[in-house]
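Researcher: Please predict.
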Amino acid sequence: NGLNIFFKTQTQLNDADHEGLLLALLTGVSKDKIRRTFCINQAAAAAMRHELEIRYAKSFNWLADYRRRTAECGFAVANGRRRWFDGIRSSNLEKREKALTSSVRWLLKY
């Protein structure tokens, strides 16, 4: 039905897009952007991120490792396919972070 059981128990997420919030948390979107996009307070955003990182530790660790490998290699690899993202090796941190987020979105097909 498209609802995450964890998010269903969160009272501050009445009509929020649960799938979008989970993907935003997985892809590493900042707490401030999550707060503005889903209209929740900063404490709730931080608490949800922490709870999900504890609950899905293997997934978050695997994605962090994937981001690290992508940054080291300069390209993303999934299912035997390589994809280069402009800015992965950039010295500009914002550009590099955007490229790494795009690589995770490509991996998750989001």
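Model: The two ends are 18 Å apart (CA to CA).
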